[in-house]
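quick one: heme C bound model?
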Amino acid sequence: VTPARSLAFAAAAVGLALSLAPAARAQSARPGHFPGDDCARCHSTQGWERLRAAVSGFEHGATGFPLRGAHAALTCDRCHDGARGARGRSACATCHADPHRGEQGEDCARCHDERSFAMKDALLRHRETRFPLTGAHALVDCGACHLDRAAGRFAGVPTECLGCHLRDYQATTSPNHVASGFSTRCDDCHRPTAWRAAKIFHDRFFPLTGAHATTPCASCHQNGRYAGTPTDCYACHQADYAATTNPVHASAGFGTTCRDCHSTSAWQPSTFDHERFFPISSGPHRRACTDCHLTSSYASFDCLHCHTKSDADHDHLGKVSGYVYDNAACYRCHPRGTH
Ligand code: HEC
Ligand code: HEC
Ligand code: HEC
Ligand code: HEC
Ligand code: HEC
Ligand code: HEC
Ligand code: HEC
Ligand code: HEC
Ligand code: HEC
Ligand code: HEC
Ligand code: HEC
Ligand code: HEC
Ligand code: HEC
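yep, here:
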């Protein structure tokens, strides 16, 4: 404490400060401090550390503490207010009580500026926490999650979905999560967009492709049962297989592994790759199925009704050893339908 300061306080204490013009003691109190200026331009008569309310023409930025936002509108004496004196008190917390009780640290400017004490860039800053606000969460009022918001408390909020959504889980009816034994790790199946958008997570169990993408849930999950739903095509499409007429699958000798010949898009056309057996996608053999498969069984076929005996004999007899006029023999020597 300098003698000058003690004097100022002592004077104030005995009510003398008002009668003494600050200018009178100027040079001894602050050497080099605005020399030649009118001390009373800034100083109030209530003490050196107290400024007048209004001082014109002072560029505050020069002090290293620019007056921004709400500060710009304040009169000088709001900060230079006597005993508290503003010098050396540029940290926010020296003038503003910390409602967070130190929980958010000393660096108030991380979340606040002089414009307001609402959290600046709240959504952006929130991304730096372990819980970025996405989907519905970005639209929710801060206080819906930060229940002690009014008291300035933001820490200690659960980050696990269940921590906030236990009651939603217990209240589910369609599907009833408790009865279905769903895990309580909601994010296995949900994103914070809407509870009803769980469909995309179906891929983990059974991708809903083709026609299945538009099939109502209940067509596959009857009576609200989810776990244990069969994944084998035949388990759900047995009746379709039995009802086939063109071709009749059972008599055609087709297996029940539908995915060998079908995708989930539609039954017709089949994805069956005939070229593996006999090329029919181009050339003279690009014909209707029934032009070769004369019976209901696809295992049987007929070449001879097109390739007459006289033509064939003419082409082979005397030229090709081992020739016989027989379907299996034709196919054995001409598996690709060419010579
Ligand atoms: C442009 C405004 C301005 C002018 C002009 C000015 N001062 Fe100051 N003075 C201040 C401010 C601001 C402080 C710091 C108050 C605080 O800490 O809040 C101060 C502080 C002081 C103090 C307190 C010293 C301390 O360390 O506590 C004294 C004494 C003082 N001034 C004397 C003078 C004298 C003498 C003059 C005239 C020659 C003068 N001032 C002119 C603004 C001014
Ligand atoms: C929002 C608070 C606030 C307001 C309002 C304010 N000041 Fe300041 N002022 C400060 C702070 C804080 C410092 C100290 C900066 C530092 O120590 O780096 C300061 C420093 C100063 C100084 C330098 C003092 C010295 O010792 O060198 C002057 C001069 C000053 N202010 C004048 C004014 C005047 C004139 C006004 C009114 C037009 C004013 N201030 C309004 C907060 C304020
Ligand atoms: C030297 C004291 C001082 C310092 C340092 C200071 N302020 Fe202020 N600030 C005030 C005063 C005085 C007010 C007027 C309202 C009040 O009394 O709370 C104010 C008002 C505000 C307001 C407007 C409050 C409202 O409710 O509208 C905001 C925001 C603010 N300050 C933010 C800050 C931030 C951020 C910092 C740090 C970068 C800071 N202040 C540093 C003194 C200060
Ligand atoms: C990690 C971010 C963060 C930090 C750091 C932080 N705050 Fe806050 N502060 C907040 C949030 C969030 C709010 C509430 C905003 C809302 O409710 O809209 C808040 C609100 C406030 C309020 C207004 C309280 C009210 O009741 O309206 C003040 C004053 C405040 N903070 C001061 C401080 C001070 C002083 C510091 C530094 C010591 C600080 N804050 C540091 C996030 C922070
Ligand atoms: C849907 C819930 C939810 C909403 C809405 C929400 N928060 Fe949070 N917030 C959290 C969770 C959870 C955490 C904890 C993150 C962590 O521990 O990393 C958190 C952390 C914070 C923190 C850091 C606290 C600390 O000590 O780590 C601040 C500050 C904060 N939120 C401010 C806000 C503000 C401001 C809003 C409104 C714009 C808001 N939050 C909206 C859930 C939410
Ligand atoms: C800190 C609390 C908190 C946490 C943690 C949390 N939420 Fe939320 N969530 C809310 C609040 C509050 C709402 C606003 C609607 C409400 O009250 O249900 C909400 C809304 C939702 C919604 C929209 C509900 C609707 O009706 O449209 C979904 C979906 C959601 N959350 C999913 C999740 C998921 C998934 C997680 C985990 C990754 C999660 N939440 C974690 C608090 C939380
Ligand atoms: C195994 C996957 C799975 C898990 C884990 C899961 N859900 Fe769901 N949830 C679903 C499916 C599927 C739906 C139906 C979505 C639809 O209809 O589009 C659903 C729907 C919902 C619905 C709306 C239906 C209703 O009856 O209200 C809510 C609310 C819900 N879930 C909350 C939760 C919560 C909270 C958790 C975590 C505690 C959770 N879920 C965990 C799969 C899951
Ligand atoms: C085309 C049939 C089909 C459709 C349509 C379908 N699912 Fe599934 N779902 C399955 C199969 C198959 C499984 C795998 C079951 C398994 O592996 O245990 C499954 C698994 C699930 C599971 C996980 C059950 C468990 O094991 O915990 C949930 C939840 C589920 N489905 C919900 C739905 C919802 C909600 C819809 C409508 C949006 C839907 N499903 C549409 C066939 C279907
Ligand atoms: C859990 C039962 C289930 C399983 C497993 C299943 N499906 Fe489906 N599928 C359905 C239901 C229900 C429909 C809706 C139309 C219907 O009732 O046939 C459907 C529709 C289809 C359709 C469209 C039918 C049409 O009329 O357009 C095709 C194609 C299909 N499934 C192929 C398959 C194939 C291939 C597999 C195996 C990879 C398969 N499905 C596995 C239940 C299932
Ligand atoms: C070896 C191949 C093969 C297998 C395996 C196969 N299909 Fe087919 N399926 C076909 C061919 C080829 C067609 C005729 C496609 C066309 O007309 O484009 C067909 C057509 C169908 C049709 C529509 C024609 C009709 O008569 O209704 C249905 C339905 C069908 N298949 C169901 C099934 C089911 C269900 C399974 C499994 C249980 C199955 N298929 C397995 C080859 C197969
Ligand atoms: C030009 C003659 C020809 C035409 C046209 C033809 N096929 Fe074939 N197909 C064959 C021959 C040859 C084989 C091989 C027979 C074998 O390996 O037993 C065969 C094999 C098959 C097989 C496999 C039978 C098995 O044993 O697994 C199926 C299924 C089949 N054809 C279905 C069709 C369908 C469906 C069509 C119409 C889209 C068709 N075919 C058109 C000649 C033909
Ligand atoms: C629906 C009538 C038809 C059936 C069935 C048929 N073909 Fe052909 N095939 C033709 C015609 C037309 C040609 C072109 C004219 C020709 O060379 O005789 C041809 C050409 C050929 C050729 C000569 C191709 C070339 O490169 O010159 C061979 C080899 C052949 N067929 C083999 C077969 C075999 C093996 C079968 C039975 C699996 C078969 N065809 C069934 C109509 C048929
Ligand atoms: C033992 C093997 C063998 C058998 C069995 C056989 N072929 Fe050939 N085929 C050949 C050979 C080798 C040629 C080429 C002869 C040549 O170019 O001189 C040929 C040529 C052909 C040609 C082409 C003639 C031309 O225009 O150049 C046709 C068509 C044909 N065969 C169809 C058949 C049919 C249909 C059958 C069944 C009735 C059959 N082949 C049975 C080996 C065979």
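The pocket of heme C (ligand 6) is lined by residues 136-137, 140, 144-145, 157-159, 161, 163-165, 186-187, 190-195 (CB under 6 Å).
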